[in-house]
Design a protein that fits this description.
217 residues; seven-stranded parallel beta sheet; 9 strands; single chain; 8 helices
Length: 217
């Protein structure tokens, strides 16, 4: 089974869908076989994943399925993949009953490292308190690093890197604040239906995110 990681966020609207889909496209363009997954019963984002990766995206849901079935799906569809990318849903710990059925539960069931996508717009060292809370909330969850979204400048990113250094968590890079990257919305998520995969998004991720390190998780 290929390597894998789960992309999550503190809350909806942080940019995890944009970054997850962009990384899937980047890995695919580099020649890797990417197996996409989506937490929860979401049958819209999976279509966009499939369009980028050229293979079906599979739902992983512990509300309607057992943990054993989720593990079986992950192992079956990820068997011939170079990397498995799991996109979370909502906030990391948001489930149907506290964190039951959440992205965090999927990560625990599959023993996957979590990459946290954080919207850093209009914030700097205050991110230390936010990240510290998520990293230390559950000791049975492995948050291995952070990707910052909507970063305003090189100076802004340097301040965010200091946050990660102080907390001892990896910083895998950032996505700069660009109006061209803003997506429309539809019920329960973003709307990519009228906008093809952005070359700009892939180029920015390749430039600003240490994607090779993500492949080694």
């Amino acid at each position: 089974m290929g390597r894998g990681f789960l992309i999550a966020a503190p809350n909806s609207g942080s940019g995890k869908t944009t970054i997850a889909r962009g990384l899937m496209a980047l890995f695919s363009r580099k020649g890797y076989r990417v197996q996409p997954f989506k937490c929860g019963p979401d049958y819209i984002d999976t279509k966009f994943h499939a369009a980028v990766c050229g293979r079906p995206s599979i739902n992983l849901d512990t509300f309607m399925a057992t943990p054993e079935h989720v593990r079986e799906l992950f192992e079956r569809y990820g068997a011939d993949a170079d990397v498995c990318v799991v996109e979370g849903m909502m906030g990391l710990f948001d489930g149907y009953d506290r964190d039951k059925g959440s992205s965090a539960e999927i990560a625990r069931v599959l023993n996957l490292p979590v990459v946290l996508v954080v919207d850093a717009k209009s914030a700097a060292y205050s991110m230390a308190a936010l990240l510290s809370g998520f990293i230390n909330f559950r000791k049975d969850l492995r948050i291995c690093g952070v990707i910052f979204n909507r970063v305003g400048s090189a100076r802004h990113f340097a301040m965010l890197q200091q946050v990660c250094d102080d907390l001892g968590v990896a910083c895998y890079g950032f996505l700069p604040k660009k109006t061209e990257l803003e997506q429309g919305s539809r019920y329960l998520g973003l709307d990519f239906s009228e906008k093809p995969e952005s070359n700009l998004l892939v180029e920015l991720l390749e430039k600003h995110v240490e994607w090779q390190r993500l492949l080694k998780l």
